[in-house]
Amino acid sequence: MQAVKDKLQDMNDMRKAKAAAKEEEKAEKDLAKARMEVAHEVRLAKEAEAAMELHVARAGEKAEREEAKHAPKNPNASGAVDSTEKGAMAFGPSCKRPPRTSG
């Protein structure tokens, strides 16, 4: 009878040990899964950051091209547009307009 009780006690101890080992394994798997999720989010953030840097660089290049298109071709020493340039007005900003005539 004692042998049966010992065998049952051993089986009960083994079941508890297996349950504890299984619980520990589950906790380790959960931790590993969380680490993988964090690593995945970090990778996505790095990719997004790289894409944003590329986007900003391209926008800067596009802005430089647009500025170059609209920059004056022959600026004089003061940086103003040369009056001989096509489309220049005969009256500068410091000159008064001629009086209007009623007609």
TrEMBL record:
Pfam families: LEA_1. InterPro entries: LEA_1. Residues 58-70 have a biased composition (Basic and acidic residues). GO terms for biological process: embryo development ending in seed dormancy. Residues 1-28, 58-103 are annotated as: Disordered. Transmembrane segments: none annotated. Belongs to the LEA type 1 family. This is Late embryogenesis abundant protein. It comes from Carya illinoinensis. The lineage of its organism: Eukaryota, Viridiplantae, Streptophyta, Embryophyta, Tracheophyta.
